[in-house]
Amino acid sequence: MDEEHIPAPARRTLGGWLLIGVPYLWLLIFFLAPFLIVFKISLSQVAIAIPPYTPTFDLGEGWQAIWDGVTEFSVENYLWLTEDALYWKSYLSSVIIAGISTLLTLLIGYPIAYGMARSPQSLRPTLLMLVILPFWTSFLIRVYAWIGILKNEGLLNQLLLSLGLISEPLTILNTNIAVYIGIVYSYLPFLVLPLYASLERLDGSLLEAAEDLGCPPWKAFWKITVPLSLPGVIAGCFLVFIPAVGEFVIPDLLGGSDTLMIGKTLWSEFFNNRDWPVSSAVAVILLLILVIPIVLFQNQQQKMSENN
Amino acid sequence: MTRGPTWFNITSLVAGFAFLYLPIVLLVIYSFNESRLVTVWGGFSTKWYASLLQNDQLVDAAWVTLRVAFTSATLATVIGTMAALVLVRSGRFAGRSLFSGMIFAPLVMPEVILGLSLLLLFVAMDTARGFWTVMLAHTTFASCYVAVVVQSRLVGFDKSIEEAAEDLGCPPARTFFLITLPIILPGVIAGWMLAFTLSLDDLVIASFTTGPGATTLPMKIYSQVRLGVTPEINAVCTILVAFVTVGVIAASIVTKRQQAQRERDERAAFGAEG
Questions:
Q1: Which of A218, A204, A230, A235 is nearest to A302 (CA)?
Q2: Distance to chain A for B270, nearest Cα, Å
Q3: Could you tell me the CATH number of the domain that includes residue A218?
């Protein structure tokens, strides 16, 4: 929606203001204020206390106290993040793992979305339902299901051994490969849905015209289908990539001890080391990294809705 | 696209759906396994389901989870529907961009950040953590999902019926309950269900914002999963999967029926006019 061109109503009743006020206030208190607190605490110092940090300022003590607090802000936590290799390695490896997983999801998701768009009209609602249904079942359960399949004495190894394809069990669980499988599996519906939406709208007569003019099918696919489905590809990839970067459950349950992902680092910094200021700083930097893809994604969505 | 599917299309669909469903099907099958070893089939048995009922901790956790999910979904539906009305109907007002930003951001925000920030808020407010804090946290992120679902329903809405009611002197609140709500009801119900399952599933945000005495089922499952795969956990998961699947399928059938009924009514009304 283009915010500039929405007219304001001639007069707004008390009810109209209330309608805006309630959700607005709720989000300000429970969404925006918490971020400001995270930012504030990321600038404070760790302390052995409950809660385990030294407050930088207290709003109740007046402006002088706030000003004193501001002068005591320290960027020590952020410097710490640059000094300890663990953090930048975690950020980097999160982005790489999320990137590889997004690509794999696209490779697997594209044929599925394409097959759905080519299937008979009467079958499509059912297929759509089948793609959406796993999304409703618990994320944790879907990740857990893979442990029994991937572990050394798991079902996949049993199958491969009994078929004689391998002589020794493969180690998949607790490696990055298991993390890729987990992310692809969990986020596949997010990619298939927008991709299917753009493939379904594709005008079949374009492909027929290409064929009539002697264009081989693979070339027609490459020159017509792929470019026209690009908005769906981009939307789907963002929907996989952005949440995958901050993923915690998948690397924790399927990954190994050497699988570095920032969501896991933040969790252990908070729950195991009880270092609230550093985990706040980790969260602030993660947010800054994600702001770029989130803004790109929203711009793209805006363009898409303008085109329709 | 209108052309028929090729063998390649059919194969990729079959393989794709096998990939999506096989892990869950295997999990369900192995919940009926007699043997404690999860990967060795020892015959059919329902003993793990029986032992679940004796596990007080799990039953307690399930009860907490259902209460949190029900309360937060209901509250989130009210707030989310209001937010959707604001996005579609309220026109321009100061801070509108910030408002829509706050609706869409939680949808892509990593859960660890949402959980951490809400916990720090509750600590700053000096609130005792437990049922209420988890409920408020779930309400917040679920209301954004509700807003998006209801908004998509509101966009394709014929505004003239509402305007007609208001021109005839119907006050706005009454117009909403008599006209707007019945039409967007499928969206509102879908929003409630989405909020309910999101709350039912959530591990990360609940882990950050909970306190003593309010362990949710996902937290319980998570702590046991870390110790290894057990048939008992398979049984809990199977019950959850069955619960959600039945709910979603039932809801989609009801919505479809209502839609068909509405279309029949409309046809009948126009037929009577002519």
A1: A235
A2: 27
A3: 1.10.3720.10
Give me the mean pLDDT over the B239-247 stretch.
Answer: 88
**Contact residues, chain B, for A185 at CB < 8 Å:** 19-20, 23
Q: What is the pLDDT of residue B203?
A: 93
Q: What is the pLDDT of residue A210?
A: 86
Q: Which residue from A140, A153, A243 is facing B39, i.e. has the nearest CB?
A: A153
User: Domains in chain A: how many in total?
Assistant: 1
What residues of chain B lie within 8 A of the CB of A34, using their CB?
Answer: 117-118, 120-121
Residue B68, min C-alpha distance to chain A (Å): 16
Mean pLDDT for the stretch of residues B242-251: 85
What is the model's pLDDT at position A154?
Answer: 84
Residue A217 within a domain: yes
The whole-chain average pLDDT of chain A stands at: 84
A28/B96 CB distance under 8 A: no
Torsion of CA A177, B31, B198, B224, to 10 degrees: -70
Residue A35 lies in a domain: no
Instruction: Choose, out of A133, A242, A299, the residue to mutate when testing the contact with B (most B CBs < 10 Å).
Output: A133
Res A95: pLDDT: 95
ipTM above threshold 0.95: no
The pLDDT of residue A54 is above 70: no
Q: Is residue A30 part of a domain?
A: no
Rounded to an integer, the average pLDDT of A264-278 is: 88
Mean pLDDT of A138-158: 88
**What pLDDT shows up at residue B274?**
43
Rounded to an integer, the average pLDDT of A122-138 is 87
Check pLDDT > 50 for residue B113: yes
Q: Which residue of B has its CA nearest to A139?
A: B201
Residue B271 vs residue A150, higher pLDDT: A150
The nearest alpha carbon in chain B to A153 belongs to B39
Closest Cβ–Cβ partner in A26, A109, A149 for B23: A149
Assess if residue A257 is contained within a domain.
yes
Tell me how close the Cα of B16 comes to any Cα of chain A, in angstroms: 6
Contact residues, chain B, for A279 at CB < 8 Å: 116
pLDDT at A239 > cutoff 70:
yes
- Domain of A135, in residue numbers: 77-307
- Type of residue at A98: A
Superfamily the domain B45-258 falls into: MetI-like (1.10.3720.10)
